[in-house]
């Protein structure tokens, strides 16, 4: 594991909150939702079939759909679902809409996003959807409460990923499923330039721990999860999103604009993600595990 955390956990938390608050406009633009779209915008990558770049809104919507179909939710059952690090709630909202018998809770440590998510919930009138302000490292739920726990591009911000996974394990029912979407390190060692990119991702996106696929799986299994039901490499399908983010951010970094330092640092992270994926040093994976 490469642990890049010289920052104490409280500074990571402050940094995450500041970044996701100040980057709100960028994320609203990211989904490129058509006029009149009333659901929450997504903060995650797009899914581009066979790696062929498709329309931005379609790609982001497709990613949400693919994740939901992987969860294999029974429409007749009352499935309890927890989304950890839910952004402004897009995945939770889509699940609650498509599965009225489910109960969906999204948690987020960033107050401004939790409040935006709640506005979407109120205007939707959905009665099976709740958003909670809270740290997924201190889940406030009883043991064995959920059938499904989701981390979509959110576990990476944890100051202690093993602890986050243990928390998810505790609140899952026996037979419940854990879904994680995130990047893993590949093809080590890194060159000096690549290590600099990784450090930029640490500074801009507050990612402290980077693991290889084997290390990541070992961490999951150390928490008593068995062999993954699924470990799917979708680097090819997400790469066009990384390229789009990286190229846009590289342009913005050339412009003489006065933006908060946290935004400048996050743009360096976008460039870094693109460069590291292009070099094959970061891979994007879906993991599905059963308790
Ligand atoms: C890249 S966004 C992904 C959002 C959402 N899952 C999606 O796919 O649209 C990461 C989210 O994780 C949240 N987050 C980071 N650390 C967290 C923590 N310790 N507890 C709860 N939420 C956290 C951030 O505030 C942010 O909303």
TrEMBL record:
Annotated ranges, domain Methyltransferase:
77-194
Quote the protein name from its UniProt record: Methyltransferase domain-containing protein
Q: Which InterPro entries match?
A: Erg6_SMT_methyltransf (IPR050447), Methyltranfer_dom (IPR025714), SAM-dependent_MTases_sf (IPR029063)
Q: Which domain of life is it from?
A: Bacteria
**Protein's organism:** candidate division WWE3 bacterium RIFCSPLOWO2_01_FULL_39_13
